[in-house]
Design a protein that fits this description.
This protein is mostly helical. The chain is built from 16 helices and 2 strands. The longest helix is centred in the middle third of the chain and has 23 residues.
Length: 373
């Protein structure tokens, strides 16, 4: 695409002023630049109503801008892709007026919820709001403001049908909510509990960074393989970190080393949102199990649970004598999800998980000793 843009730029610059070739070149260049637009995209190959109008207005506005600026542009000095992106942003900040955004909001309200057309319309609206530059600026710190914007756009998605055009302008409605959410976000950031959570996130970030330096890729792959089988009776911190490191960090950091800190912070934040481990027991750590031992250990564990020679797995959930520890263990070994197990037994996921955790924590040494004999 960059080569195509550069070629079109050269052709326009070389064409005589006010000539048909120059005018045609400007039209083609504007179309090429708008191909990468993030708003007013076709729905199933077609543009209709307001979306078609936006594209036509953007094309006309961009052609006018190119006529005045094309000769001063030097593609040897400024990358053509960045130049084109800057022009697109400027064009859409002009085209996406407050009245245009209101029409886009009303276009969403005309759609039935949860339909493909609704999803298209709401995505177009949110993208248009972000590109328009019409969100109110505040005195909030940049990170708090961005969080408030994200929460506000989510609120718009959830409450779009509540907007009443007879009671005010759409962006007035949005910016009023942004102001309220911004105030609440700032207050939350000052809360001692929030500050403590942030300190934990930062600490976890440094732990992740240290683990990335210490862990071998082969170890991560082994742990991931064990974890995905869903039979590991120990879901301890290193295994969780290894899984996330493999899937979220290793490849991403290699692709964008400059984004390492941001990625680590994001993953550290997600780690704090995870539910408590089903079992935390160093006695059942499987980190040192080789691939060759894996299958035999799975079979040994399954056989031991099925036969239950020591009657370890017959305790059951109160009020549900049929839901024994043996039932839950075998279901998990067969890759049944907690949601499926909950639906099948009529027991809440939290109740199943807590019972499973308490039971296995106390039985961990006996299970390990039995399957390794």
């Amino acid at each position: 695409m960059n080569e195509q843009l550069e070629q079109l730029v050269r052709e326009v610059q070389q064409a005589p002023p006010h000539s048909p070739d120059r005018q045609q070149g400007i039209i083609q260049l504007a179309r090429q630049i708008l191909k990468a637009r993030q708003v007013a995209r076709p729905f199933r190959g077609q543009l209709t109503e307001i979306y078609q109008e936006i594209v036509e207005q953007a094309q006309a506005q961009l052609q006018q801008m190119l006529e005045h600026r094309i000769d001063s542009y030097d593609y040897h000095r400024d990358p053509v892709r960045q130049w084109a992106e800057h022009l697109r942003q400027e064009v859409f900040q002009i085209i996406l007026s407050r009245s245009c955004l209101q029409r886009l909001a009303l276009a969403v309200q005309q759609q039935q919820p949860k339909t493909d057309r609704y999803q298209y319309a709401i995505c177009e609206l949110i993208q248009a709001i972000k590109l328009s530059g019409k969100l109110a600026r505040t005195q909030l710190a940049p990170e708090i403001y961005q969080e408030a914007v994200n929460h506000t756009l989510l609120w718009v998605c959830q409450n779009i049908y509540a907007y009443n055009p007879n009671r005010g302008e759409f962006m007035g409605w949005v910016n009023y909510r942004l102001d309220k959410i911004g105030q609440a976000t700032q207050q939350a950031q000052q809360d001692p509990y929030t500050q403590a959570i942030r300190a934990k996130i930062i600490k976890t970030k440094y732990q992740l960074s240290a683990l990335m330096r210490q862990l071998k890729p082969s170890d991560l792959l082994d742990w991931l393989n064990l974890y995905l089988r869903k039979w590991i009776p120990s879901l301890n911190f290193p295994i969780v970190v290894s899984l996330i490191t493999l899937l979220s960090l290793t490849a991403l950091v290699q692709q964008s080393p400059s984004k390492k800190d941001a990625l680590l912070f994001e993953v550290a934040q997600e780690l704090l949102n995870l539910p408590p481990p089903l079992v935390y027991s160093e006695e059942l750590s499987l980190v040192n199990i080789s691939k060759e031992e894996e299958l035999s250990l799975v079979d040994a564990l399954r056989q031991y649970v099925e036969e239950d020679p020591d009657q370890l797995f017959q305790n059951h959930i109160k009020g549900h004598p049929e839901v024994t520890l043996q039932t839950i263990l075998l279901a998990r070994l067969d890759d049944e999800t907690w949601q499926s197990l909950s639906q099948r037994t009529g027991v809440k996921i939290a109740t199943l998980s807590n019972f499973f955790q308490r039971s296995l924590t106390s039985l961990a040494p006996q299970i390990r000793a039995a399957i390794q004999q």
